[in-house]
Every structure is written in C-alpha cells, then in structure tokens.
Amino acid sequence: MEHYQDIRDAVARLCARFPGEYWRALDRDMTYPGEFVAALTQAGWLSILIPEAYDGSGLPLSAAAAVLEEIQRAGCNGGACHAQMYTMGTLVRHGSEAQKQRYLPKVATGELRLQAFGVTEPSSGTDTGALKTTARLDGDHFVVKGQKIWTSRAEHSDLMLLLARTTPLKDGMKKTDGLSVLIVDMREAVGNGLTIRPIRTMMNHATTEVFFDDLRVPVENLIGEEGKGFRYILSGMNAERILIAAECIGDAKWFIEKASTYAKERHVFGRAIGQNQGIQFPIARAYANMRAAELMVRQALSLYEAGKNPGAEANMAKMLAADASNEAANVCIQTYGGFGFAEEYDVERKFRETRLYQVAPISTNLILSYLSEHVLGLPRSY
Ligand SMILES: Cc1cc2nc3c(=O)[nH]c(=O)nc-3n(C[C@H](O)[C@H](O)[C@H](O)COP(=O)(O)OP(=O)(O)OC[C@H]3O[C@@H](n4cnc5c(N)ncnc54)[C@H](O)[C@@H]3O)c2cc1C
Q1: What is the number of other CB atoms lying within 10 angstroms of the CB of residue 102?
Q2: What is the pLDDT of residue 1?
Q3: b vs e for 22-60, b when ≥16 Cβ sit within 10 Å of the residue's Cβ?
Q4: What is the DSSP string of 292-342?
Q5: pLDDT of residue 235
Q6: Which residue in 71, 96, 151, 311 has the fewest CB atoms around it within 10 Å?
Q7: What pTM, to 2 d.p., does this model score?
Q8: Does the CB atom of residue 130 touch ligand 1 within 6 A?
Q9: 3-state secondary structure of 269
Q10: Cα–Cα distance between 33 and 359 in angstroms, integer?
Q11: What's the 131 CA to ligand 1 centre distance in angstroms?
C-alpha cells in the first residue's frame, strides 16, 4: 500500500497557509472554514476518490486517508469537509449513470458541494431502522416529511444524501428494509419545505437540525432501488470509519508532537519538564498506542483496497484511533499544565474537536457490540 508522501507534503504545504490563528478566530465565532475548504477543493484534494471518468483523480481510499490524516496532523480540521469523501461513495457505487454524469463532475470542480448526510434522527439515534422521516411517492415526486438531527455542514452544502422510509413498516418486515436514499438539492429546497437550524456544540462543527415539511424531491433523485437504502448507506460505512480513523491518527500525531516539543522547552525546578518520567512516559505510551492504531488503519485500508469487506478492521481502526487521539489529547493538555487551557496554544481547541470521535459517526459502544456479535459470536445485545 502506498504511503503517498507527495500528497502528504502538498497537503501539509496547503495547511501551513491556515495556522492556529485562523482556526481560533473561526472557533470563537463558530464560523465555517470556507476559505480552507475552497483551497482544498481548488487543489483537487476533495475529489481524489471521484473516478477519472467523472473528472476526479480516481485514487484509492489510502490516498484520501493520507489527505485527511495530514490535515489533522497540521492542526487543521477536516470535519468541515470530510463527508464529501465518503458520502460520494454511495453515489459512485449505487447511482445511475445519469446521476453520476449530472453530479460528480460538478462535485469534482467544487461547483456543487456534497457535504451533507442526513441519517440520524432525534428519536431513533443509533437505531437507524427506527427512523421516522418518510418519503411518500406522489406522481413523479417523493414528498418528504420528518426531521433529522446532527446533519453537519447542511448550511455549507448544495446536496444532501438523505435516508428516509419509503415503505411503511409492516409486521414481519425487517426494520432496515423499506428505507431509501434520495439526493436532495438543498439550493431549491431551503424555504420550500426544508428548514435548517444550526446547533451550537462544544466545538466548531457546523452541525444542524433539518426539518422536512412536505418537501418535494423528484423521483429521478432516488439512488438505486427503492427500499434498499440502508444497504447502500452500510456499504459506505467501512470507508467512513477508515477515513475518520486516519483523521484521529493525524490528531494523535499533532498532540504528541506538541506535547514532546513543549516538554523539552518548558523548564520548571531548573530543568525541562520532559526530563521527568512522569511527563515522558504518558507521551511515550500515547505514541505507542497511536502507532498500534495506525497499523490497524493500514490493515483496514489494504483489505478494503483488495476488495474485501473489512467490517471488523474498519470498526477496530476507528475505535483504536479515536482512543489514541483521545489519550494523546489528554496527555498533551496535562503536559502543558495551565497553558493547555489557554486558547492561544490550540491544544484545548483540538482537545474539544477530537473528543467527538468517541461518539460520532459511530460510538465506541456500538463498535464493541459489533465485535462481540459478528467476530466473537456472542449474543446480540439489542
Ligand atoms: C457533532 C456531530 C456531528 C454529527 N454529524 C452527523 C451527520 O452529518 N449526519 C448524521 O446522520 N449523523 C451525524 N451525527 C450523529 C452521530 O452519528 C450520532 O450522534 C451517533 O451515531 C450516536 O447516536 P446518538 O447521538 O443518537 O446516540 P444514542 O443512540 O442516543 O446513544 C447514546 C449513548 O448510548 C449508547 N448506546 C445506545 N445503544 C446502545 C446499546 N445497544 N448498547 C450499548 N450502548 C448503547 C451509545 O453508544 C451512546 O454512547 C453527528 C453527531 C455529532 C455529535
């Protein structure tokens, strides 16, 4: 599997134009990093997974993982745009030729932003099959009614991939059947049945809740077959988990680098704090855990690229990498002492940002449940 050093260097050079001051100012006002996302788009980094036939670079998932890891490693935040990398897979794999021709070349140039992914709902949470948003067929349109929550980047995206129930649940039916994926063109929809409300969170993540009030979506925007949407979304989840894991590895590297540098420079009691094993060892342990998680990310990537279905490895990579970044964040703030809490060092901001990956896009408990059931053969717990 390639390391993509050339891509890593180029992304690092781009990220150097967006230093801590840039992110701090946005964080203070909870503003979207539009210039950063535009720069990534113009440089072609957000379209590397789009096949060449649709004007992307057609590179494998490990190239996308290299891009996202380097963004985080540089202290930037790919959360503003990472969804395009994985939501697009649903369209590439299951969209019709006409849909791909219509959207992908424009997504590649940045004319269309495909950053919003509407799955989670307030009442169903992780239990996706229990979602309540419906899309009822009416002539040549679906009429969508319901609500999504945590639809990130909805205000900064032109298109949304929406999962809604198109066939009502009946007795004996699997609850993940009867769901369909629709492409919602939000440029036309906002104010015509679609309302977006931002949610303020502990980090700057541009997340929202979205309300559908008889929104009309043309039938031609249905991806693949009606009722099979849950499978299409599932088929993209390995990629999603692996890419988020790569981001967490980037975060962990940033924290470890920051902590090591600070531990060498900060002198207390007449010597560098990093001379104390009480400071060294937690950093060294965080490093070892990051490297172990990185190996799992690589294993998941190589299985994925060999056309396998690395459900277990993708889940483990995500969990271990999120744990590694969380540990490194904690160690970094401890190494900085009081200064870790001061905005100007970026540690507290990154600490808040990386915490998310214990919960989203899949929480640690659900990964453990997956491993228990599907790898260890233990009884399903829910
Ligand atoms: C900032 C942010 C951005 C997000 N962006 C998006 C997005 O763009 N699109 C989207 O669709 N969603 C998005 N999400 C939603 C995210 O995927 C969910 O928050 C996550 O999957 C957890 O679901 P929940 O919040 O409903 O938690 P719940 O399902 O309510 O679970 C709450 C807690 O209970 C635990 N739990 C639940 N069931 C079990 C069980 N059976 N066994 C053990 N523990 C259990 C969970 O692990 C969790 O810790 C985002 C969330 C956040 C916070």
Answers
A1: 17
A2: 82
A3: ebeebbeeeebbeebbeebbeebbbbbbbeeebbbbebb
A4: HHHHHHHHHHHHHHTT---HHHHHHHHHHHHHHHHHHHHHHHHHHGGGGGS
A5: 87
A6: 96
A7: 0.98
A8: no
A9: coil
A10: 23
A11: 13
Distance from C-alpha of 363 to C-alpha of 340, rounded to nearest angstrom: 26
Give dist(CA 208, CA 197) in Å, integer: 5
Q: Which residues of the chain carry a pLDDT beneath 70?
A: none
**C-alpha distances out from residue 94 to 90, 283, 310, Å:** 6, 44, 19
Closest CA to 163 of 214, 223, 243: 223
Return the residue whose CA atom lies nearest to atom 30 of ligand 1.
125
The closest-lying atom of ligand 1 relative to the alpha carbon of residue 382 is 41
First to last CA, the chain: 37
Residue 18 CA to ligand 1 centre (angstroms): 30
Confidence (pLDDT) at 287: 99
- Provide the pLDDT for residue 40: 98
Instruction: Count CB-CB contacts under 10 A for residue 117.
Output: 26
Tokens representing 338 are: 């009081």
* Distance from the Cα of residue 251 to its chain's centroid: 13
Q: How far apart are CA 232 and CA 363, in angstroms?
A: 20
**Is the CB of residue 317 less than 8 Å from the CB of residue 330?**
no
pLDDT at 31: 97
Domains of the chain: 5-109 (1.10.540.10), 116-228 (2.40.110.10), 236-375 (1.20.140.10)
Give the Cα separation of 166 and 134 in Å (integer): 6
C-beta 372 within 6 A of ligand 1: no
Find tokens 């459900």 and name the residue.
Answer: 311
